Amino acid sequence: MRKDIYEKMEILSNSAKYDVSCSSSGVESNYKKGELGATHSSGICHTYTSDGRCVSLLKVLLTNYCIYDCAYCINRVSNDIPRAAFSPRELADITINFYKRNYIEGLFLSSGIISNEDHTMTLILRTLKILRNEYKFNGYIHVKLIPGGSMELVEEIVKLANRVSSNIELPSDKSLKLLAPNKTKASVLQPLKYARDISLERERKPIGMSTQLIVGATPESDKDILKLSSVLYDKGLLKRVYYSAYIPVNDKNKLLPSTITKPPLLREHRLYQADWLLRFYDFTWDEIVSDEFPNLDEEVDPKTSWALNNLKYFPMEVNTASKEELLRVPGIGARGVMKILSARRFKRLTFDDLKKLKISIKRAKYFITCNKEFQKQVPFYRENIKAALTKPEPKKIHQPSLFDLQYSNITGEL
Ligand code: SF4
């Protein structure tokens, strides 16, 4: 790679690393003698296809010049950082070179706003046209749409991309006004609405759409965040919301947490678990959070928290409970439920049978009976069960690493 291109690449891949739409962001381990492999804080990220395949992507900005001044963003116009911009040709060439060398299988392309919204979208579109039409590149492309971009440009991009997204970042208009004065929720959602309508009009498979919400930069509760996600899922605007624990990058703005504040990783993890309940377990947001408890319990996962607050539905008999009921048992995931449903067609299940089916009962044992047997460990009261569930293990206390949290955010293991 030419030196000037290499320098641009370093600046622009580094500037893209705060976007969490790929799970490997932020994981860093350098090469060590005698060991194999290394990760870098930016450059290559991974995404997962609907069949669970992991795809490596070149994650980069077209430019980190930006006319907007979003206080939480490293690329804001008022921040004094090295700036760079690729031309569409340069970026298309890099993508193809990396692809041919087997470094990547696709591209995750975002950008700061240079000159104006439509000019930036035009540059992105040009990059896509070179890749798709000239180089006949058929790999995965994810494009971050620019808030306020025109419908014609969104339409052209939707034709060429596999996934588009537009980052809402902050859950309320009030916070956006304070910290991202050039944006409104409507201006961020507009391109996604265009993209949804265009793909539906053409009766093609709806294009995958996602957004990112920053967690912990502003005072909104988990209730505000989950309610917003739920509305966006219900409207068919999004396939996925990514939650990003705020990493302080601005020590001048008094409205933001100070730069010594640690990113709220556990809160981010609980939000991913709650999101999983919304999308795959038929929970509604107001079952998970409420006016009384607007924030998720950090001590237990959201499904366990719901069960503890609704002990009237438990203990549940695994031999007679419906599929929907079993899905609400803490510690039993969708796969476990399918195993139970198929095994109980042949016999009444016991706790030993669940073990043989490789269904963990570590958490579930407090909430189920098997053939009327209840492995009663503690009195059946909320406080007693919660104390038993959160009691540290005597020998090995496993603190979840960043990798564990990210893995679980992808698989949604609950
Ligand atoms: S528009 Fe995007 S790149 Fe520009 S300052 Fe705001 S968040 Fe950063």
TrEMBL record:
Cofactors demanded by this protein: [4Fe-4S] cluster
Membrane-spanning ranges: none
SUPFAM superfamilies: Radical SAM enzymes (SSF102114), RuvA domain 2-like (SSF47781)
InterPro entries reported for this sequence: Aldolase_TIM, DNA_rSAM_put, Endo/Exo/Phosphatase_dom_1, rSAM, rSAM_sf, RuvA_2-like
Domain of life (superkingdom): Bacteria
Organism: Malaciobacter pacificus
Keyword entries, A-Z: Iron, Iron-sulfur, Metal-binding, S-adenosyl-L-methionine
Entry's Gene Ontology molecular function annotations: catalytic activity; iron-sulfur cluster binding; metal ion binding
UniProt-recorded name of the protein: Putative DNA modification/repair radical SAM protein
